[in-house]
Each structure stands twice: as structure tokens, then as C-alpha cells.
Amino acid sequence: MAPKKWTTTEQENLLSDFLPEYRTYRPGRDYSQFWPKIHQAFFEKWPMREALFPDKPVNEDLDEHERQNLSEQLQKRKEVSGSTYLNKYTWLIKKTANSTLVPLED
């Protein structure tokens, strides 16, 4: 059984939009310039603060515990998104290396 997806269809579409750029980093396997771009696009559209604290107004400061929780959750999400991206799209790139890329479907 496949693991449960952590993304919505809209989030998956945003991630797959970065596939052409990801392919340019693949030969050197240095993704240090790639990850900040994808994380910025993702978290601008789906802020973790709003997901973690939906009832807390954005203009209200987080307390120390909330800031720590937010930091930990952001790091975990970046790790999950990175490993998921590498696993899924590296496989897709290998599969389609000699063919035209087709859009991903659920």
C-alpha cells in the first residue's frame, strides 16, 4: 500500500512546476540553490504558522513554545518535502529520460 500523500493536488502541482528547474541541478547533485526557491514558493502559498495556529491572529506574536514548535515543524516539512521530491521526481526523470515529460496525475 502506498504511503498517504502529505500534499494536496494544488500543492503537488506547485511542486511539479519546479521539475524543469530541478532537472538542471540533477547532474551536479548540488541542490543548495534549488531548495530555498521551492520552499519559499511553497511556504508563501501555504504558511506553516497559519496551519499550526489557525486561531491566532497573524499580527499577534508567538510565545517561545509556539516559535519553537513552528521552527521544528518547518524543518520537518522541509525534510519531508525534500526527500519526497528527490524520491518521486528522480524516479520520474529516470523513467522519462528519453521521452517527453508528461504531467503528473493523481
Main attributes of the structure:
disordered C terminus, 5 helices, single chain, mainly alpha
Summarize the structure.
By secondary structure, the protein is mainly alpha-helical. The protein has five helices and no strands. It has helices at residues 9-17, 19-25, 34-45, 48-52, 64-95.
Question: Describe it for me?
Answer:
The protein is an all-alpha fold and 106 residues long. The protein has one domain. Helix content is 61%, strand content 0%. It contains five helices and no strands. It has helices at 9-17, 19-25, 34-45, 48-52, 64-95. It is elongated and about 45 Å long.
Helix and strand arrangement:
Layout: H1 9-17, H2 19-25, H3 34-45, H4 48-52, H5 64-95
Helicity, as a percent range? 55-70%
Gap between N and C termini, in Å?
15 Å
Number of separate domains: 1
pLDDT under 50 segments (min length 5)? 98-106
In angstroms, what is the radius of gyration? 16 Å
Assembly classification: single chain
Give the biggest sheet: none
Q: Helix count? A: 5
Order of helices and strands: HHHHH
What structural class do the secondary elements suggest?
mainly alpha
Task: Name the average pLDDT.
Answer: 79
Tell the overall outline.
Answer: elongated
Q: Beta-strand level of the residues, as a percent range?
A: under 5%
- Report the strand count: 0
